[in-house]
Amino acid sequence: MNFFLNLTAGLSVALQPLNLLYCFIGVFLGTLIGVLPGIGPAGAMSILLPLTFKMPATTAIIMLAGIYYGAMYGGSTTSILVNIPGEAASVVTCLDGHQMALQGRAGPALGIAAFGSFIAGTLGIVGLQVLSPPLVSIALRFGPPEYFSLMVLGLVILTFLAQKSMIKALLLAGFGILLGIVGLDTITGKPRFTLGIPKFMDGIGLIPLIMGLLGISEVFLNVEKTFHRQVVNTPISHLLPSLQDWVQSKWAIVRGSLIGFFLGILPGGGAILASFVSYALEKRFSKTPERFGRGAIEGVAAPESANNSAASGAFIPLLTLGIPSNVLMAILIGALMIHGISPGPMLLKEHPDLFWGVIASMYVGNIMLLALNLPLIGLWVQLLRIPQAILFPLVLLFCVIGSYSENYSLVDVAMMLFFGAVGYFMRKFDYEPAPLVLAFVLGPIMETALRQSMIISEGSVTIFLSRPISAGCLIIAAVLFLTSFIPSLQQKRKLVVEEGEETR
Amino acid sequence: MNADRLTAMIWFAIGLWAISSSISLGLGTTREPGPGFFPILAGTFISLMAIIIFVQSLKKREDKKLSDFWKGLRWKKTLAIGLIMIGYILTFEWLGFPISTFLFLLILLKGMESVAWRKVLLISIISTGFSYLLLSISLESTLPKGIFGF
Q: Is B67's pLDDT higher than 90?
């Protein structure tokens, strides 16, 4: 019964005209940036963050969330038609999606991607709605030691899944924590690591950091390559998958939804991982694995379903614990805090309208996305024909405006450019920036949890090991950490991570 | 110079700097951790990882030189775009938002890529106008007017 009570309560918020409008703007922009390679949901959400300052908090979160799951829909279009992922969670969709397009089956590929996304997205939201309340009651019993250990685990999982070297990813997590500390110490008020620059007293801004490391560096790396985008030129017809297509992909959609949802909940997991794992699994389950990579429709259905249900699952740690499981959720935390709402287990009790309103808006947003991505697919295809030469100056302009408009400070713009250069060199030398960004957000929360734990335990480190949840998290983290030093296991980790990536 | 070895040394230096700064900030006690307590853990961790990367790079046989990372790439273009962005930031307040933004797009579209003049002007004017409206109306912000007064 509660399920429907909560749903109607949420819908009464989500269906208010203002919220409907911003939900639409969110999913529309999400699809747009999903389609356009070179700018991901993280960049788009940071650019729009300042725009939400004057909105009600619920409306702001509804729009930002829409960008996130909307991008998961849009990303597949570019993967299928151009063979370049529109955003990172659609990398594997290229493998079979583009093959299907070359064989003149772009329509069913786009269709199954949209339907799979819709089904999985909706299932994911049901899971989110059902699992959140019981998890909140567990989370309420979490103390500082549990929080600290859980965040350690989240960071280790994220680095474990890094596609390049885990040691490098761990190092960057450490560096991210250090960058997060810059500014005034919250307890003693002492300035830390400010290099004597007054602006650094307030800390380093999340928006310049994200836009620089993820946005600008991407442009820098792309402009030095000479590549041609070739949009598949066959007419797109038969968007509705045939009965045979459905039969072939129904289990892929179900499995993709489940895998995606649970990997989405995992701290450090998320849509990118979910799409890789579901593709690899589908290939292993298949009676005809040789079809994969040659235009198998399951190869499109599984990862596209997985990345959407993962996007829903990722909201669970955010809404119940107040811990972001990935960079995008970190931006949402930032948005909540700007509106004076502290994310955490009290969110459900203190702001039920926001909690249920956002969840209900995701049902609505998924229906909007289905409409945007099937009948209006032609619009997005036209967009793909915009040449790179025109696109990249506009991306740079958006980044400048986004980082400037938060505080109207050129220092922030300069900072973004600096992190753009840092990100460029980091990526050149195989250092992936994602762990750095997540650690940057988690760093200050971790420090507070650590200091509080030490005060509670009167200086004894055993507090982290004597409490079962905390100890469990730390043990798993330690096991994962140690595997990075065992060469034979290192090989296996590489295999798991690269499985989906092999033919990229 | 092996790239991993070079980056490892840079990270090691950053780690050491973090450790020494943390010590001067004050570590406190485990009962009452001071402002340097958490950063010294991060600094130590960075240094340790840097040492591991350095050692691992000694074992590797393939020696990828720094210049190999830019081989066959148009790195001058990246550098030029970076410099153009610095120029944009420096002239942002002096020339004002509309003019500096228009010039920024014009230089990128015409100087970096050979887009046709008509398109260049169209895109530059529309994007500048749109972003000006977005910022000044919806955010009610005060954009720098610059020496020309608009």
A: no
Q: Do A429 and B37 touch (CB under 8 A)?
A: no
With cut-offs at 50, 70 and 90, classify the pLDDT of residue B115.
confident
Query: How is residue A438 written in tokens?
Result: 């997540």
The pLDDT score that the predictor gives to residue A494 is 60
Q: Do A410 and B89 touch (CB under 8 A)?
A: yes
- B148/chain A closest Cα distance in angstroms: 20
DSSP secondary structure letter of residue B112: I
Three-state secondary-structure class, residue A41: helix
Q: Note the pTM of the prediction, 2 decimals.
A: 0.84
Any residues with CB less than 8 A from the CB of A296 and at least 6 apart, and which? A96, A248, A286, A288
Separation CA B150–CA B145 (nearest Å): 5
The verdict on B37 touching A (C-beta cutoff 8 Å) is: yes
pLDDT category of residue A492 using cuts at 50, 70 and 90: low
Q: At what angle do helices A468-483 and A144-160 cross, to 10 degrees?
A: 20
Q: Which of residues 447-486 of A touch B (CB under 8 A)?
A: 447, 450-451, 454-455, 458-461
Contacts of A51 in chain B (CB under 8 A): 138-139
How much is the ipTM here?
0.90
Contact B144, B92 (CB under 8 A): yes
Whether A502 has a pLDDT exceeding 50, the answer reads no
Say if A401 is an interface residue toward chain B (CB within 8 Å): yes
Chain B residues in contact with A410 (beta carbon < 8 A):
89, 92-93
pLDDT tens for A419-476 read: 999 999 998 888 888 889 888 888 888 898 998 999 888 888 888 999 998 999 999 9
Question: What pLDDT is stored for residue A156 in this prediction?
Answer: 86
Q: How far is B55 from chain A (nearest CA, A)?
A: 12
Q: For chain A, say whether B3 makes contact (Cβ under 8 Å).
A: yes
Q: How far apart are CA A306 and CA A269, in angstroms?
A: 12
Q: How many CB atoms lie under 10 A from the CB of residue A136? A: 20
The residue among A224, A416, A462 with the most chain B CBs within 10 A of its CB, best to mutate, is A224
The reply to whether B21 touches chain A by the CB within 8 Å rule is yes
Chain A contact for B131 (CB, 8 A cutoff):
yes
Kindly state the percentage of chain B with pLDDT values over 90. 28
pLDDT surpasses 90 at B48: yes
Q: Which residues contact A327 (CB under 8 A, 6 or more apart)?
A: A42, A210, A214, A434, A437, A438, A441
Q: Say how far apart CA A318 and CA A329 lie, in whole Å.
A: 7
Q: What is the nearest CA distance from B77 to chain A, expressed in angstroms?
A: 6
Sign of the CA dihedral running A116, A119, A123, A128: positive
φ/ψ of A350, rounded to 5, equals: -85, -35
